[in-house]
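Quick one, probably user error.
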């Protein structure tokens, strides 16, 4: 796992950590901001091209034809190296992408150690590759959230020209967590007026308003941000969560219907909705016996069902 602040050529540490459900093991953490790990630390070095080996010859003595032959061989080897290097890097990138695909299966199953090992090897092969960096960010987020580590990967994405509007929000979020509000405001200053009114511009403005203590404004901006992306089930779920606290019963009922709608999906948002309906997210939603039965069916039939003893016990109630 790359260490924040280190050069891409020599980040350290392959990591595992605590899962999103809190069911993971915790071991000693290295270097203060490091992830809690159950995996032996390993230095990750970037993949490099194999050194070209060119035979030595005595170009001063011996026959002229032998010296010329050696020069031709050396020139041919150098040309082959120049042609082969891009092909080798392309192969490395394909290998890294294949490792990322395997690692994502482990992430979905919360097998942190296996995912960490594969992503460490992928980073070694191609440290500036977008899918590798995004998978590493997800691993950090789900095992041992760290603003410093997130910022490290976001900066690498930006340096490679892969940064998105959402990445800018996450970067501002990291700066604020690290008590660097000026850097966060600079990100907003770089946005155009249209971008400031877009989904992620509104979210960034919400973060800054909250940091300044303007809570009501921050909440209003955040709602506007989510309303810009109603096709996203997580945004619909977040809006419903806000409306569950509304004092009007009819608004609460619409919010509950929206939560159920999201829970019947097969994605990550569905898992979040299931947790909300089960009361594990700190919001109490009363369930009828029929609804409780449906909720347990949704848990059992989800492609990546929630893990942990509480769900297993709940299924026997």
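Nope, works fine. Designed sequence:
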């Amino acid at each position: 796992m790359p260490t924040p602040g280190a050069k891409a050529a020599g980040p350290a540490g392959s990591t595992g950590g605590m899962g999103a459900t809190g069911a993971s093991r915790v071991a000693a953490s290295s270097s203060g901001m490091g992830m809690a790990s159950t995996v032996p630390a390993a230095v990750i070095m970037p993949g490099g091209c194999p050194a070209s080996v060119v035979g030595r010859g005595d170009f001063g003595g011996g026959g002229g034809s032998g010296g010329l032959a050696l020069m031709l061989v050396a020139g041919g080897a150098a040309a082959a190296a120049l042609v082969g290097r891009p092909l080798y890097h392309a192969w490395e990138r394909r290998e890294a992408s294949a490792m990322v695909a395997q690692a994502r299966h482990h992430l979905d199953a919360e097998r942190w150690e296996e995912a960490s090992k594969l992503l460490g090897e992928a980073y070694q092969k191609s440290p500036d590759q977008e899918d590798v960096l995004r998978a590493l960010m997800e691993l950090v987020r789900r095992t041992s959230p760290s603003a410093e580590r997130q910022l490290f990967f976001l900066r690498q994405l930006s340096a490679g020209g892969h940064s998105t509007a959402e990445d800018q929000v996450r970067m501002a979020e990291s700066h604020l967590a690290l008590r660097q509000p000026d850097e966060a405001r600079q990100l907003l200053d770089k946005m155009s007026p249209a971008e400031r009114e877009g989904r992620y511009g509104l979210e960034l403005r919400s973060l800054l308003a909250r940091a300044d203590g303007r809570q009501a404004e921050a909440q209003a901006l955040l709602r506007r941000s989510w309303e810009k992306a109603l096709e996203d089930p997580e945004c619909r779920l977040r809006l419903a969560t806000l409306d569950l606290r509304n004092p009007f019963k009819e608004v609460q009922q619409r919010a509950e219907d929206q939560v159920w709608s999201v829970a019947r999906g097969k994605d990550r948002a569905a898992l979040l909705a299931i947790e909300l309906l089960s009361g594990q997210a700190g919001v109490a939603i009363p369930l009828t016996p029929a609804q409780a039965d449906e909720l347990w069916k949704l848990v059992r039939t989800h492609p990546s069902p929630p893990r942990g003893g509480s769900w297993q016990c709940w299924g026997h109630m």
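The chain has a mean pLDDT of 76.
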